């Protein structure tokens, strides 16, 4: 049995991940944490307040903790889990460079295995590969990234849009800067433009526009359901539970 704990268990993603975990014959939900809904019964567990995480993790000893919260909370959750020797799957987005470094060092010091990805859908992994291929063949074209999400999303631009920009930047022979939105007198340079749209119940759209002389290409991924992310995160938890200590990416998981 793979024993799973979830932080942000009452959230949009936490709720869906819980459903999937409970339906897996080889998985057991052993703990769930959030700020509210404490004491709520889910399957065999009761939701704990995140402040009790250290104590509950030591008692329940999960094989992996899945975190979908907000950046500031996720950093703290990673530190607590890693210090208790619990492996991690982090789906939260919106980290700055210092927060990423804090998580890396906690994972290293705790000698745990962790997968951190802004997007757990299979389609997005293919989308990122297509971006590499397009970038290699379209050097010199202008590149704009447009993402759209629901009106409850807290961070902008999305973690996936930033990952797409990084993949493109690493592939280009000259590393470009990023421009977030455009306004005023702003002539275009070599930069990658990144634009965020927020509205309604859009699950998650990412479009990369390669605008060239006389033609253009758009590469687009659209999620129709959060199930695409949630099922990937549960698969990642099963995978990370048997990995050696270290920080992993979705590419590592799909290599196998
Ligand atoms: N990697 C991927 O594939 C995907 C990533 N995401 C990312 O996942 C994150 C969560 O998204 P979503 O589920 O839509 O957001 P929600 O706001 O629906 O859920 C987040 C949950 O975490 C709770 N929370 C806040 N702080 C803490 C804390 N310190 N400890 C435990 N729980 C806490 C929130 O409580 P409260 O509401 O009371 O604040 C809420 O219940 C976002 O960063 C989003 O960008 C989303 C989809 C896919
Ligand atoms: O907050 C969301 O909903 C999503 N967030 C992730 C991101 O920021 O990239 C992934 C997905 O697009 C949904």
UniProtKB/TrEMBL annotation:
Catalytic activity: (S)-2,3,4,5-tetrahydrodipicolinate + NADP(+) + H2O = (2S,4S)-4-hydroxy-2,3,4,5-tetrahydrodipicolinate + NADPH + H(+); (S)-2,3,4,5-tetrahydrodipicolinate + NAD(+) + H2O = (2S,4S)-4-hydroxy-2,3,4,5-tetrahydrodipicolinate + NADH + H(+)
GO MF terms, alphabetically ordered: 4-hydroxy-tetrahydrodipicolinate reductase; NAD binding; NADP binding; oxidoreductase activity, acting on CH or CH2 groups, NAD or NADP as acceptor
UniProt pathway annotation: Amino-acid biosynthesis; L-lysine biosynthesis via DAP pathway; (S)-tetrahydrodipicolinate from L-aspartate: step 4/4
Location of the protein in the cell: Cytoplasm
Catalytic residue list: 149, 153
Protein name as annotated: 4-hydroxy-tetrahydrodipicolinate reductase
GO BP term, pick one: diaminopimelate biosynthetic process
Family statement: Belongs to the DapB family.
CDD domains given in the database record: DHDPR_N (cd02274)
Residues bound to NAD(+): 8-13, 34, 91-93, 117-120
Binding site for (S)-2,3,4,5-tetrahydrodipicolinate: 150, 159-160
Functional note: Catalyzes the conversion of 4-hydroxy-tetrahydrodipicolinate (HTPA) to tetrahydrodipicolinate.
Main location: cytoplasm
Domain Dihydrodipicolinate reductase C-terminal, chain residue ranges per copy: 123-253
Protein source organism: Methanooceanicella nereidis
GO CC, alphabetical: cytoplasm
UniProt-listed NCBIfam families: dapB
EC number: 1.17.1.8
Protein encoded by which gene: dapB
Subunit: Homotetramer.
Keywords: Amino-acid biosynthesis, Cytoplasm, Diaminopimelate biosynthesis, Lysine biosynthesis, NAD, NADP, Oxidoreductase
UniProt xrefs under Pfam families: DapB_C, DapB_N
Residue ranges constituting the Dihydrodipicolinate reductase N-terminal domain according to the UniProt record: 2-120
């Amino acid at each position: 049995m793979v024993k799973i704990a979830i932080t942000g268990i009452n959230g949009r993603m936490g709720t869906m991940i819980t459903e999937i975990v409970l339906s897996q014959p080889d998985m057991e939900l052993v703990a769930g944490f959030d700020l509210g809904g404490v004491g709520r019964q889910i399957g065999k567990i009761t939701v704990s307040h995140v402040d009790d995480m250290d104590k509950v993790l030591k008692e329940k000893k999960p094989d992996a903790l899945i975190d979908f919260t907000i950046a500031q909370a996720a950093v703290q959750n990673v530190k607590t889990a890693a210090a208790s020797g619990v492996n991690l799957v982090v789906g939260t987005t919106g980290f700055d460079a210092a927060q990423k470094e804090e998580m890396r060092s906690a994972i290293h010091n705790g000698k745990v295995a962790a997968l951190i990805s802004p997007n757990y859908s299979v389609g997005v992994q293919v989308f990122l590969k297509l971006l590499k291929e397009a970038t290699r063949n379209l050097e010199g074209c202008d590149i704009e990234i447009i993402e759209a999400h629901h009106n409850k999303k807290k961070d902008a631009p999305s973690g996936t849009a930033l990952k797409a920009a990084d993949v493109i930047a690493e592939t280009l022979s000259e590393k470009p800067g990023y421009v977030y939105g455009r306004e005023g007198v702003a002539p275009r340079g070599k930069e990658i433009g990144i634009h965020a749209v927020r509205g309604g119940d859009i699950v998650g759209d990412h479009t990369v526009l390669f605008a060239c002389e006389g033609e253009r290409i758009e590469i687009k991924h659209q999620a129709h359901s959060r199930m695409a992310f949630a099922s990937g995160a549960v698969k990642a938890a099963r995978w990370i539970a048997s990995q050696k200590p270290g920080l992993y990416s979705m590419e590592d998981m799909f290599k196998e």
